[in-house]
Specification:
2 strands; mainly alpha; 5 helices; about 65% helix
Length: about 140
């Protein structure tokens, strides 16, 4: 038996609809629902208003909005189904949406710290900005 591609594998065609479907699903920004879009826009607006929005922020903002969306969906499912559900055997178990909700919140919290959304991170930013201002003023007036 010769080496090479498996029989019938063939080569992928450039305009293959199956490949386009797969490519579109994994390429580009992940899709947001209405809640995620609203949160993303809210964050963008807040950062713009405060003059701290950068082109570098958009991937993190999208990741935050996706986590926010997932957190909301999981919370809605928990409200509807409850925190304890029955498995296929009829035994009570913790609802899997608890883990999904908690993981989404952890991602939101980590991104929030990076973006300066938390009180602690804003304090650090304020301290850093004050230090920069002080050093700039010292440079201007000492020369």
């Amino acid at each position: 038996m010769r080496g090479g591609a498996r029989p019938g594998a063939g080569r992928a065609k450039v305009n293959d609809p199956k490949l386009k479907k797969i490519f579109n699903r994994v390429n580009g920004l992940a899709k947001l629902n209405k809640i995620g879009k609203k949160e993303e826009q809210r964050i963008v607006n807040l950062l713009e208003e405060n003059g701290v929005l950068s082109d570098f922020d958009f991937a993190l903002i999208r990741a935050y909005a996706l986590a926010f969306q997932e957190w909301n969906e999981a919370e809605a499912a928990l409200i509807e189904q409850g925190r304890v559900i029955e498995n296929s055997s009829g035994n009570p178990i913790a609802n899997p949406y608890l883990r999904i909700r908690d993981n989404a919140f952890k991602r939101m919290f980590e991104i929030a710290k990076e973006m300066g959304f938390s009180i602690k991170s804003r304090e650090k930013m304020k301290d850093w900005l004050q230090k920069e201002e002080d050093e700039f003023a010292k440079f201007l007036f000492d020369n």
